[in-house]
Design brief:
With about 475 residues, the chain is of the alpha/beta class. It is built from 22 helices and seven strands. The strands form two sheets. Strands 2-1-3-7-4 form a five-stranded mixed sheet. It has a two-stranded antiparallel sheet with strand order 5-6. The N and C termini lie far apart (about 75 Å). The relative contact order is 0.10.
Length: about 475
C-alpha cells in the first residue's frame, strides 16, 4: 500500500473528513436525552451527587476522572437529566473520529484512515458508549491518543512524544482500569518488535517505553489490585465463552473478518505496523479471555480501547480492496458491506431498541402517576428507581411517597426462600397501608433469583400492568411492572 504517497489530506479528503465528523456528531446527539438510564448510568448519578466522603470510600474513586468531570460540570449543566449527563462523553466520542484519522494517516495512509474514521463514526458499539454516562468513550479517546503517540515516538524516533503519550495512557487508566490494556499492548510491541524478520536493532532510547511503562503499572498496582479484588467478589463466575460471545456481538462478524483480512494484507508490506495494530486490536481481548477463564467474569466492553485498531485494520482491508479492483462499483463493495451492516444495527438502535436500554423511565412514570397514597417498590434496578423517583427529571402528578427495596440474593437467602421474601414484603405493605409494586427485567432478576422462586411467587400473586419491550442483542431486557394483589 502506498502510504508514503498518502500522508497529506487533499482538499477533497479534508471535506470528506468534515462530513464524516458531522455524521458522527449527528449520530451521537440523536436520542441522547431520550434513552432511559440503565443500572450503571444510575450508579454514575449516585456517585456524582454523593458527598466527597462517600465518593472517596467507594471503589470507583480509584478511577475518578469521569466522575470528577461530571462533578465539576454539575454546577454549569442546566440539569442532571440523561442528556446533559451524557453530553461530555458524547463530545469525547465525536472528537475521537477526526483524531483517529489525523493521527493514523501516516501509519496506514489517508484512504485507509478515512475508511476507519467512517467505520468508527457509524459503529453501534461506539455510538452506544458515546451516548452513555459512563467513562468508556472518554477512556478510549485518551487511550487512542496515547497508543498512537507511543507508536510515533518509537517508529519516528521522536522521544519528546513519549512522555505525553504515557501521560495520556495513564489518564485513560484513571478513566477506567481497562485503559491500561492499551498500555500493555504498547509495552509488548516495544519489546517484541525488534524480533520481527528484517527489523533493525532498536536504539537504546527505544527501551524507554517499556521501562517507563512498567514503572507506571507498578505505581498503579495499589489502585489496580483492589479493583481486581472487587471484580472477583462481584462476578466470581468467570467464562471465556462469555468474552468471546460479547466480543463477536459488539465488534460484529463482518468487521472482525475485515479486520483479520486487513492484518494479512498489511503484514506483507509493513510487518512492523501490522504487528502493532494486531497487538492493539487483539491482545486486550485475549487478556480479558484469560482473566475471565481463570479469575472472574469479564465482558468485551473492557476491550473497548481496541476498537480504533479494529477500525484501522478494517479500513486497510477496504482501501486495499478498493486499490486492487478495477474502477467501478465493485471497488467500493467491501467498505459498503461493512457500512451497511453497521448502519442496519444503527437503525434498530435508534428506533425499536430504544438506544439498547431498558425503558425504566416509562415504568417509573407509571408509579409516579398512580393514585396510591403510599407505595412499596421491589425492583431489580434499585439505582435506576431511585434516580427516577428522586431526581426530579420526570413529570410528577403530586408528592411521591415510595419506598424502594432492591431484590438481592442475600436478602432472599436471609428470608429463607424467594417465596418467603416476597410474602414478607406483601404482608408488610398490607400492614402499613401501602401498595406493593414490582418492577424488573427478567435477566437481572435471574441473576438474583437463582432458583426462580421469586418469579414463581410473582406470577401467582400479582397482576402485570405494563410490558415495555426492549431487546439488547439476544437478551430480552423488557421492563415489566407488576402490582401485587392486596
Amino acid at each position: 500500500m502506498r502510504t508514503a504517497e498518502e500522508q497529506s489530506l487533499s482538499q477533497g479528503q479534508w471535506l470528506l473528513l468534515v462530513l464524516i465528523t458531522l455524521l458522527a456528531v449527528v449520530l451521537r446527539i440523536i436520542g441522547l436525552a431520550q434513552w432511559s438510564f440503565w443500572v450503571d448510568e444510575a450508579h454514575t448519578y449516585r456517585d456524582v451527587v454523593s458527598s466527597l466522603e462517600q465518593f472517596s470510600a467507594s471503589h470507583v474513586s480509584r478511577y475518578p476522572l469521569s466522575y470528577l468531570l461530571l462533578r465539576g460540570l454539575s454546577g454549569f449543566l442546566p440539569s442532571m437529566g440523561e442528556g446533559w449527563m451524557r453530553l461530555p462523553f458524547a463530545i469525547f466520542g465525536m472528537a475521537s473520529i477526526p483524531l483517529l484519522v489525523l493521527l493514523a494517516k501516516r501509519m496506514v495512509g489517508t484512504r485507509a484512515a478515512l475508511w476507519a474514521g467512517l467505520f468508527l463514526a457509524i459503529c453501534p458499539w461506539h455510538i452506544y458508549w458515546s451516548q452513555n454516562a459512563r467513562s468508556y468513550a472518554m477512556m478510549m479517546f485518551f487511550a487512542m491518543l496515547g497508543v498512537l503517540g507511543c507508536y510515533h515516538a518509537l517508529t519516528r524516533r521522536r522521544s519528546s512524544i513519549l512522555l505525553p503519550a504515557l501521560v495520556s495512557l495513564t489518564i485513560a487508566g484513571f478513566c477506567h482500569p481497562s485503559g491500561y490494556l492499551a498500555l500493555v499492548a504498547c509495552l509488548v510491541f516495544s519489546c517484541a518488535a525488534p524480533l520481527l524478520p528484517g527489523q533493525t536493532k532498536q536504539s537504546k532510547r527505544a527501551y524507554a517505553l517499556p521501562v517507563l511503562g512498567v514503572l507506571v503499572i507498578v505505581c498503579m498496582l495499589p489502585i489496580l489490585l483492589p479493583n481486581l479484588e472487587y471484580a472477583q467478589r462481584a462476578k466470581p463466575d468467570g467464562s471465556f465463552l462469555h468474552v468471546l460471545q460479547t466480543s463477536v456481538f459488539f465488534l460484529r462478524g463482518p468487521m472482525i473478518i475485515a479486520c483479520i483480512a486487513g492484518l494479512v494484507f498489511y503484514w506483507r508490506e509493513h510487518a512492523r505496523r501490522a504487528f502493532f495494530l494486531g497487538l492493539w486490536a487483539f491482545l486486550p481481548f485475549a487478556l480479558l479471555g484469560f482473566v475471565s477463564a481463570v479469575f472472574f467474569k469479564a465482558t468485551a466492553q473492557y476491550g473497548f480501547c481496541s476498537l480504533p485498531a479494529v477500525c484501522l485494520l478494517a479500513g486497510i482491508a477496504a482501501a486495499e480492496f478498493q486499490a486492487r479492483m478495477s474502477k467501478g462499483a465493485m471497488q467500493w463493495i467491501l467498505g459498503l458491506v461493512l457500512v451497511a451492516d453497521m448502519a442496519s444495527y444503527d437503525y434498530f438502535y435508534f428506533t425499536i431498541q430504544s438506544g439498547d436500554r431498558p425503558r425504566w423511565r416509562e415504568a417509573m412514570q407509571l408509579i409516579i402517576d398512580s393514585d396510591d397514597p403510599a407505595r412499596l417498590l421491589l425492583t431489580s434496578n434499585m439505582p435506576g428507581a431511585l434516580y427516577y423517583l428522586n431526581s426530579g427529571v420526570l413529570p410528577r402528578a403530586g408528592e411521591v411517597d415510595t419506598e424502594v427495596i432492591s431484590i438481592e440474593p442475600w436478602d432472599v437467602e436471609v428470608a429463607g426462600s424467594g417465596e418467603d421474601f416476597m410474602t414478607a414484603h406483601r404482608d408488610r405493605a398490607r400492614q402499613e397501608g401501602k401498595t406493593l409494586y414490582v418492577i424488573l427485567t427478567h435477566p437481572e432478576l435471574a441473576e438474583k433469583d437463582v432458583d426462580g422462586s421469586c418469579e414463581a411467587w410473582l406470577r401467582a400473586n400479582s397482576r402485570q400492568l405494563l410490558d415495555l419491550p426492549s431487546w439488547i442483542g439476544p437478551k430480552d431486557m423488557s421492563v415489566l411492572v407488576y402490582r401485587v394483589d392486596a
